[in-house]
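Lab notebook, bench 4. The sequencing result for the construct came back, and we need a structural model before the next group meeting so we can plan mutations. Quick request posted to the team channel:

Model the 3D structure of this chain.
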Amino acid sequence: MARRRGQPVHGWVNLDKPKGVSSAKAVAIVRRVFDAAKAGHGGTLDPLASGILPIALGEATKTVSFAMGRPKSYEFTLAWGAETSTDDAEGTVTRQSDKRPGDAEIDAALPEFVGEIDQVPPIYSAIKVDGRRAYDVARRAASHDDVPTLTPRQIRIDAFRRIDSAPDHARFFVACGKGAYIRALARDLGRALGTAAHVTDLRRLSVGNFHADRAISLDFLESLPHSAAAFEHLHPVASALDDIPALPVTDTEAAKLRHGQSIAAISPSAQQRFNALQKGATGIAMNGDQPVALVAIKAGAVCPVRVLNL
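Done. Here's the predicted structure in token form:
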């Protein structure tokens, strides 16, 4: 008997993931609730973290890379006095310090972490080391000394401020760009203050236009009595694309793009419609309110990159 693949459901679910659930499990649950044939997520969230995990269904999975690249914001709590192997409360302690920084000292250190900075990702991350995930390498290492050091990467921190603090803990807000690890930020702040630190609580508040105050919880989604009620919480495919140029196309042009054909952008009117795209940049072709394809300008023409079959 052939395995049933599910229905052609297209759109985004703005999910508030609870602690203790992996991103993969959350995707599987949402896919089951909507009986969707295809699903993915817009940026992994650790099982110990809670908060926004945008779930893409159907043709929205073609826009996942754009969701993952959107600005994000977090609140997190760190504990002073210990670094761990995972940079959070799940790991074993690897270094300790008796120093507890004061509020003024903490606040004075934060500006050094704002802007374009270099960051070494946590070894327990999905970064690849010689073709293998870093967390697999770390788990197989005979001791902590055998764990390789990852190469620093440039990330962007847009805002970093202290919310409140106690002698052994402090809570922070961070807004950042793609690729930033909050666990590594906490680790590096501890070192900059001459102590040690690790994350004890982490919540993602937003990913692009997906915000916690407009999210649906996993428990509530699973409790809905029928699939029609779930569809009230399904957002359009273009929800993750608000920060890329939207290019209006005619019915004829939309048909060409859907068939993999390019549009010659040579007339003055076409140039005016497509001038938002620079060479190599990506835009979304829109036929009215309907997204047609992700497009790019190549050799003076607008070319389909990913066609959205909606």
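The chain has a mean pLDDT of 86.
Will bring this to the meeting.
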